[in-house]
Q: What sequence folds into this?
C-alpha cells in the first residue's frame, strides 16, 4: 500500500502545478479566437479568426513584426559570424591571457543589461544612433557577443584539431580547413547560438523601448506594450491575437533548439536582464 | 594548440585579427557604457536644463542626494522583497517539479514539462499580459476564488508587490526546474537505494543525500536567478508600472522614472550604480564558481 501511495503522489503534485501553470495562459489563447473578447478569461461569444485577420490587415502591425525580424535576424547573423571568427584563435592558438579573456566574457554574460541603459541612451544621442534600427542592432550584437563567444569557443574545442591537421597535410589552407571541416562539424553549435540570440532579441522589450522612438521603427514587443497601454480603447481580441502571433516564433525556435541539444544542457550563463 | 610562429606584426595580426571585430564592439557598446555609468553618476547630466547643455563634474552630489531620498530606500526594499520572494518561490517550486518528475512515467513528463516551460519561452511582454489578465479585478484568480466563496481581491492594487512576485515566480520557475533536473540526473541512484535499505525515509534521503549532492547547483542557480531578477523591468513595468504609488517601484523602474521621465540622467546612473555593483559582485562569484568546476 505504502508503495502505491508514494507512486501516486508525484502525479497529483505535478497535476496541480500543471493546472496552475496553464490557467494564466488560457486567456490569451481563448481571447484571440473570441469575437467579443475582454480583458479576462470567459466563455467566448463566438469563435472567429477575424482577430488574426485584423492584426495582419494593419500595416503598422506587419511593420512591427518586420522590425523585430530585422533586429533579431541581423543580430543573430552578426553574433554567429563575429563570435565564430573570434572563437577560432581562442580555441586553436596558444595565447597569453586567454583564460582571463574567457572569464571576463563569462562575467559580462551575467551582468544585468538594465543597469547600463542610461549611458547607452546618452551615447546613442551623441553618436546619432538614437531611433535607428541599425544602432539598436549594434548594441544588441555587442551585448550578446560575450555569451556567443563563450558558447562558440566551447563548441569549437569539441572539433578535434587532428582533423584540421590532416587537411593541412593534404594541402588545405587554414580558411579551407575552417570552411570544410570546422564549420560543418560545428553546425549544431552555430544553430544553437543563432537561435538563442534570435529568441533573446525577439523577446527583448527594454532595449528597443529605450533606444527607438518612431512608430514605424518599433518592434513587436514595444508595439504590444503601446497597444496594451491605451486602456479603455483596446480591442482585446486583437491584442490577444497579436500576442499569440508574436509568441509563435519563440515557441518554434525553442522546439528546434531542443532538437539540437538532445541529451539536455545547462543554461549556465544564459541569464540576461 | 597551434603555436603561431610568425614574429612581429604578421604574427600579431594572425593571432588577434579574428578577435578584433568582436572585441571592438564589446569595448564600445558594452564596456564603454559600464565606465560611462560610473562617470555620469558623478556629473549633472540631464535631458533638459543646464545639465543638458554642459556636463559638469559634481562629485558625490548624486550619491548624497540618493542617501537623503526616501524613495531610494523604498526602491531598495522593494527590490529585495521582489528578489527574495522570486528566489524562494522559483527554487522551491522548480525543485519540487524536478524532484517529482523523476518518479513519473515519461508520457506524463512530456505533458507537464512544456506546460511549465511555456510561460518562460514566450516573450516577456506577452507573459506579463497573461499575468495581468490572470490577476485582474474580475480575472481568472478572482473567478476561481468566487467559486469557493471568497470575495474578490484587488490583486494589482492592494497586493501589487505580492502579485508581481507571483508573476515572476510563474515565469522563472522553468529555469530552476531545468537546472535542478540536470543536477538530479547526476545524483547516483544507488546512494538513495542504500539509504532506503538502511531505513532512511524519503524525506531523510532527500535532506541528507540529494540536497548535499546538488548544493553546487543550488548555489549557481541562486546567483543566476538573482542576476536575472535584479534586471527585471518589462514584467513589472507592464503589470503595474511601478505603482500603485511606489509599491512595486524596484531599482530598474526607479532608475527609468528618474532618468527618462524625470529627465535626470545623472541621478538615474547613480541609481543604476547600485544595480551594477550588486551585479558585478554576483557575477564575480558566479565566474569563480564556474571556474572551479
A:
Amino acid at each position: 500500500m505504502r508503495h502505491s501511495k508514494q507512486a501516486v503522489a508525484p502525479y497529483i503534485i505535478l497535476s496541480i502545478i500543471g493546472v496552475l501553470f496553464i490557467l494564466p495562459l488560457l486567456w490569451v489563447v481563448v481571447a484571440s479566437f473570441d469575437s467579443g473578447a475582454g480583458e479576462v478569461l470567459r466563455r467566448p461569444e463566438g469563435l472567429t479568426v477575424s482577430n488574426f485577420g485584423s492584426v495582419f490587415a494593419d500595416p503598422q502591425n506587419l511593420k512591427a513584426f518586420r522590425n523585430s525580424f530585422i533586429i533579431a535576424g541581423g543580430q543573430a547573423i552578426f553574433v554567429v559570424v563575429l563570435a565564430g571568427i573570434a572563437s577560432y584563435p581562442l580555441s586553436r592558438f596558444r595565447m597569453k591571457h586567454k583564460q582571463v579573456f574567457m572569464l571576463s566574457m563569462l562575467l559580462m554574460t551575467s551582468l544585468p543589461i538594465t543597469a547600463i541603459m542610461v549611458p547607452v541612451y546618452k551615447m546613442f544621442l551623441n553618436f546619432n544612433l538614437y531611433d535607428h534600427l541599425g544602432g539598436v542592432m549594434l548594441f544588441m550584437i555587442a551585448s550578446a557577443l560575450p555569451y556567443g563567444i563563450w558558447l562558440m569557443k566551447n563548441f569549437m574545442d569539441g572539433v578535434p584539431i587532428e582533423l584540421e591537421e590532416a587537411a593541412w597535410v593534404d594541402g588545405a589552407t587554414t580558411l579551407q580547413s575552417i570552411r570544410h571541416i570546422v564549420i560543418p562539424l560545428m553546425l549544431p553549435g552555430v544553430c544553437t547560438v543563432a537561435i538563442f540570440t534570435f529568441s533573446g532579441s525577439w523577446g527583448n522589450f527594454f532595449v528597443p523601448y529605450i533606444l527607438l522612438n518612431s512608430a514605424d521603427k518599433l518592434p513587436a514587443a514595444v508595439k504590444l506594450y503601446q497597444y496594451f497601454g491605451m486602456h479603455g480603447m483596446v480591442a482585446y481580441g486583437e491584442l490577444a491575437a497579436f500576442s499569440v502571433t508574436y509568441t509563435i516564433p519563440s515557441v518554434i525556435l525553442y522546439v528546434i533548439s531542443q532538437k539540437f541539444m538532445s541529451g539536455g544542457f545547462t543554461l549556465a550563463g544564459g541569464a540576461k536582464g | 594548440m597551434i603555436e603561431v610562429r610568425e614574429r612581429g606584426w604578421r604574427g600579431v595580426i594572425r593571432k588577434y585579427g579574428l578577435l578584433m571585430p568582436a572585441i571592438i564592439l564589446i569595448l564600445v557598446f558594452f564596456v564603454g557604457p559600464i565606465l560611462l555609468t560610473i562617470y555620469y553618476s558623478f556629473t549633472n547630466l540631464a535631458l533638459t536644463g543646464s545639465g543638458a547643455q554642459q556636463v559638469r563634474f559634481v562629485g558625490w552630489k548624486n550619491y548624497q542626494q540618493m542617501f537623503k531620498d526616501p524613495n531610494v530606500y523604498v526602491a531598495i526594499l522593494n527590490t529585495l522583497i521582489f528578489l527574495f520572494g522570486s528566489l524562494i518561490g522559483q527554487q522551491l517550486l522548480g525543485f519540487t517539479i524536478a524532484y517529482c518528475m523523476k518518479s513519473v512515467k515519461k508520457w506524463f513528463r512530456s505533458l507537464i514539462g512544456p506546460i511549465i516551460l511555456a510561460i518562460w519561452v514566450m516573450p516577456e511582454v506577452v507573459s506579463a499580459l497573461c499575468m495581468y489578465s490572470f490577476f485582474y479585478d474580475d480575472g481568472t484568480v478572482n473567478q476561481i476564488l468566487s467559486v469557493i466563496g471568497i470575495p474578490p481581491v484587488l490583486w494589482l492594487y492592494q497586493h501589487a508587490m505580492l502579485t508581481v512576485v507571483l508573476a515572476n515566480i510563474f515565469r522563472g520557475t522553468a529555469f530552476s526546474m531545468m537546472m535542478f533536473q540536470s543536477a538530479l540526473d547526476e545524483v547516483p541512484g544507488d546512494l538513495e537505494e542504500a539509504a532506503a535499505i538502511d531505513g532512511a525515509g524519503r524525506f531523510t534521503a532527500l535532506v541528507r543525500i540529494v540536497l548535499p549532492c546538488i548544493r553546487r547547483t543550488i548555489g549557481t542557480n541562486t546567483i543566476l536567478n538573482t542576476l536575472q531578477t535584479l534586471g527585471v523591468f518589462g514584467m513589472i513595468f507592464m503589470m503595474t508600472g511601478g505603482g500603485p504609488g511606489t509599491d512595486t517601484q524596484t531599482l530598474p523602474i526607479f532608475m527609468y522614472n528618474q532618468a527618462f521621465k524625470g529627465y535626470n540622467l545623472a541621478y538615474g546612473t547613480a541609481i543604476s550604480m547600485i544595480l551594477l555593483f550588486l551585479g558585478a559582485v554576483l557575477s564575480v562569484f558566479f565566474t569563480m564558481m564556474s571556474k572551479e568546476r
